[in-house]
Amino acid sequence: MTSAISVKAVDGPGQPVRTPALDELYRGFERELLVPLWTEIGDLMPDSPRPAALPHVWRWQNLLELARRSGELVPVGRGGERRAIALANPGLGGAPFVTPTLWAAIQYLNPREDAPVHRHTQHAFRFVIEGEGVWTVVDGDPVAMRRGDFLLTPGWRFHGHHNRSDTPMAWLDGLDIPFSHYIGSTFFELGPDAVDDHSTPGRSRAERLWAHPGLRPVSQTSPTTSSPIAAYRWEHTDAALADQLALAAEGHPGVVEPGHAAVRFTNPTTGGDVMPTIRAEMHRLAAGTRTATRREVGSAVWQVFDGTGSVRVGDREWPVHRGDVVAVPSWVPLTIVADGGLDLFRFADTPIFERLHADRAEILP
Amino acid sequence: MTSAISVKAVDGPGQPVRTPALDELYRGFERELLVPLWTEIGDLMPDSPRPAALPHVWRWQNLLELARRSGELVPVGRGGERRAIALANPGLGGAPFVTPTLWAAIQYLNPREDAPVHRHTQHAFRFVIEGEGVWTVVDGDPVAMRRGDFLLTPGWRFHGHHNRSDTPMAWLDGLDIPFSHYIGSTFFELGPDAVDDHSTPGRSRAERLWAHPGLRPVSQTSPTTSSPIAAYRWEHTDAALADQLALAAEGHPGVVEPGHAAVRFTNPTTGGDVMPTIRAEMHRLAAGTRTATRREVGSAVWQVFDGTGSVRVGDREWPVHRGDVVAVPSWVPLTIVADGGLDLFRFADTPIFERLHADRAEILP
Amino acid sequence: MTSAISVKAVDGPGQPVRTPALDELYRGFERELLVPLWTEIGDLMPDSPRPAALPHVWRWQNLLELARRSGELVPVGRGGERRAIALANPGLGGAPFVTPTLWAAIQYLNPREDAPVHRHTQHAFRFVIEGEGVWTVVDGDPVAMRRGDFLLTPGWRFHGHHNRSDTPMAWLDGLDIPFSHYIGSTFFELGPDAVDDHSTPGRSRAERLWAHPGLRPVSQTSPTTSSPIAAYRWEHTDAALADQLALAAEGHPGVVEPGHAAVRFTNPTTGGDVMPTIRAEMHRLAAGTRTATRREVGSAVWQVFDGTGSVRVGDREWPVHRGDVVAVPSWVPLTIVADGGLDLFRFADTPIFERLHADRAEILP
Amino acid sequence: MTSAISVKAVDGPGQPVRTPALDELYRGFERELLVPLWTEIGDLMPDSPRPAALPHVWRWQNLLELARRSGELVPVGRGGERRAIALANPGLGGAPFVTPTLWAAIQYLNPREDAPVHRHTQHAFRFVIEGEGVWTVVDGDPVAMRRGDFLLTPGWRFHGHHNRSDTPMAWLDGLDIPFSHYIGSTFFELGPDAVDDHSTPGRSRAERLWAHPGLRPVSQTSPTTSSPIAAYRWEHTDAALADQLALAAEGHPGVVEPGHAAVRFTNPTTGGDVMPTIRAEMHRLAAGTRTATRREVGSAVWQVFDGTGSVRVGDREWPVHRGDVVAVPSWVPLTIVADGGLDLFRFADTPIFERLHADRAEILP
């Protein structure tokens, strides 16, 4: 569908005098599908990022309630593919995008349900706030999902989910759907309608091969685009965070700042981020900790894993509880305060910026 | 500004039955700023890229005529910053973007004019179809602009232009403004209102230091984000293209395909693309050559430098002449046919895709 | 000390006729410190590597007995620095080098002894065949040494050892001393005469920060030259090897070849080898397994960790038992056969070859 | 051939008391092919590099005279392969190695002679002090050799030379033969006995494809291990050096230090060194310039291309003239003084050190 071009004269320094001749020129621009820089430069080239996306908090209890109701009304199967409900940033015109680049959704699977198999170039992960009983089957490898686990479905891997339990399960999905959509790199392919392996192993084959600290199989020694670790288990994440705080208490380095431990989920074949477009981390704030106020180019999403506290994003401030999801747009300052201990999962589009040398960050006083 | 969310029930396989309960659920989504995947998946996750941008050709003579008229009516100075008129892809809702990621504009400078100094994180280049007499001054280094030259202004370098001659000059600007705008990484800073060095050297200092084949200064041996070569001169580009066709005529490899020579402008400190987000190339088709039909993920812009021929982009076909500019959206097949010899400049957003491992290309039968 | 040059006439195809004039020419070469290629090319440029080093096996019981006796006669302290006894390859002219590039030694520490603190550019590791009670203190971080552990001392870190126990302890040291010596890159610096931290933590601080699968501290996100993991614990290595064999038994990939599991110790910040010059791995052969016969450019050292079997290196074959050390020179074919289960530690200089694009390997029929 | 091990008791701090028991221990070491660290540490682990190689200067006139005489007495053909005469460092026991890692030789070809075709994994280059008339044919591509040219024969390319002229020609060969020999990575293969293409093009095909500043063929966009530029022509090198000195005279950066211009020959596909083990550079000192005194880990060889001056290497100082070759061992300080203008070619093993993170350099006061 072809869009009409509209060139609007504006006033201000450096602008041409409004005359009939100028108006005629602007109509000529429109006819030839042209738009002058001088009327648009303020919006296009601001002094610093002015994201359309807005800071916002979604409440887990509300998400969960609507997801449960969807479980009653909405089937999971071919066509709709997933019972996933996306967080739509209020600044983005109604698009189902939590930030301009990132997708966040609550996904819900009823007891004994399967989500059908497909694959797509978008990179995906799951993060589990609560519950268990679902296995996500990635390229034929069943991966158990349990509270605190961070699970990967890198681009172009066939995957489906199955719930073998008697209880429903909900979790957070994160993807780069908006970014892929924007740059026009999306491919999608259907697999079988049902998951073909309903087994329920405690550990995936990917973990058995790859989730050993500092060890890799000699049979597989090339770097891979995304991490081969299908599941980062909570027990490891929790231990690493506890170790950092304990080291700090003993006077040793390791934490990000006083009272603030953090680990990044990484690709063991490169040491870099788990997937080319998504960074994922877990943060732990000791009781009473207030983080430095920090902003960075690129957008992020935080989900409270445990504890309570408050987040300040730009001019807005919210108390947060388990499961609440916070959108942090590009270059908007963020401060987090823990009441008691506060654990937070975070994902962000930073790898896009780092790989394109467009990253910037600063601590504000 | 906060956007209202609107969830529309759709029909089709995998969709829930439309009932009042479903309607109530969807209203609940809207209240909580949520959008289900199952109603949106067709648009968001198509089988292959379905870009909003459309193939289009802008005629150089029309661009030039409007630019000249702008030269009479529109000042160049602080505020508007540049007398640049952007090509607005008819599929992109009136935005001044030639493709979703790329900016292309004709810029015009009257005799004895200066364009004021500023810098921005967006990466920019100039390509000169015709004329001379302007120097672009990049971080204090005056760079002559002449027909066939490809000139760089990588991100965050102060730059202005000055026309010391008695004739106006027009050229093509290429930038990653749309991509920077989308990802929210834009910084901008004013420099002096006038260029402070009006000298007119034949070669820039950057060329004297860097534009020697296979040689680099021992004083500067780290890789740089963007190429340090300020100007890629036509005499070198022309010679390299002629050499490729001559090698092919002698039976040796080098050309892209029979009758089709091509060189990529590269960063001599890495061998990679000149800037993190932009690839630039010059192509030469021998008389009568028809290229293979090829498509790739990511968008490109071609400008005819010399000769005549025709381009077929998807279902559209256009004859093209010197200076005409063609937009090629992501994954749309492109074929070019040369009448006599045909030289074309090309720029594309491919580095974004390659660095994020999202590149794909194919030759169609 | 200046060496005299001696040019010897040789016979064979392409050689000049021996005449008094030729003799005079060769004497002229000697006076001017010259040697012709044509008399040396056979030795210098053979069709394939002809290493001076020889295959050899050292028996752990013999090493241990001599180390114990050294414990009675030889002090550990400033000057001698370490009670380490190096394996001297019988082909290398009496130099204390297990291969041309690698150093292997048995090191021995008596109860309550300290080895003094120093640092050097040579990269070092320890591998523990048996025993415990020693802590190696690397840049102030005490690292427990226990059977099966692989411990790192990358170049230029201050380190000493202390034995807090009532029993002596012996282990295998591996370094790149011969390579460093050859290329002339050696720096060495003394630290305190005694270790200043005699604490005996179960886990080092480095492990607490880094030895979590796929996780890294957000406070430290740059790649490091060598691995920050101070100790790769046997429990993890053992589990990874067991997992590989179990996966194979279930029909899944992961092992190097049937019955042969292997893990490589890696730098979690890069996914590459633990140190720039040294590769280290642990191999497990199921009972009765015979490996393929393989050779590769570069030299390796194997130590039996557990079990019995036999190794064939070139034309030589030896039965091997716990602790025995095998030198495998460049390009010499190696086959290993397990009696019962057989666990082997391996280290090699392969990173040197890979980083210089000089690596080659082949499986022989 | 098996070497006997000899363990010699030494005196000094940290050494054991000399007793019959110690003597018996040392004899036990010898029987088991062991050598203690404590008697060897002084030699093996000095405070800073103590290379066996010595500073030395070879006089071009002497080299040339002996090469001419070899032209009369020594054939060039299968078996001897090349009429190349290597510089043998006086500290290296008579081996034909200019430094522990590098080979330098004068090669000489009579009128109408061919040097037969072969290939080897060793990396090679030619540098031409004077003369012309020889073409080196690399993988079938004839490359003219002329004064000032730097020509590459990366590892494993078939190559021969032919002299189509009526005058003999001599040049400098540089290779990594000693390093390859030491690490045991040498492969060698014969090609045809005579060069099969005796054509004499002014530019090689490799240059036509690759020697354009900042341009690469779109048909070949992967990084290559070694540079694809077969010849770096003097006209480009000379212009780049002249530009640096002119920039400095105008007050702009670019030179290494006042009066000292230098360019590095690089691989245009990476921006790095031309070959994995060899760095090559051209230096120009303005009349009267004295360089800073500098030392670096790794060894280098300099050849005077034009002019006169003096070199100080460690404690030795020599006046030097056109063609003279200077060996600079690892970590030995070097100062160069130009009488009139002085142009010098330099090659070094630095890439080995940089790729293994073992590089160090310092300016001495």
Report on this model:
Four copies of one chain form a homotetramer. Helix content of chain A is 18%, strand content 34%. With 365 residues, the first copy, chain A, is of the alpha+beta class. In chain A, the strands form four sheets. In chain A, strands 2, 15, 16, 18, 19, 20 and 21 form a seven-stranded antiparallel beta sheet that branches. In chain A, strand 7 and strand 8 form a beta hairpin. The radius of gyration of chain A is 23 Å and the shape is globular. The mean pLDDT of chain A is 97. Chains C and D meet through helix 1, strand 1, helix 3, strand 3 and helix 4 of C and helix 1, strand 1, helix 3, strand 3 and helix 4 of D.
Write down the secondary-structure element order of chain A. HEHEHEEEEEEEEEHEHEEHEEEEEEEHE
Task: Name the average pLDDT of chain A.
Answer: 97
- Oligomeric state of the chains present here: homotetramer
Low-confidence stretches of chain A: none
Characterize the biggest β-sheet of chain A: 7 strands, antiparallel
Strand segment tally of chain A? 22
Helical fraction of chain A: 10-25%
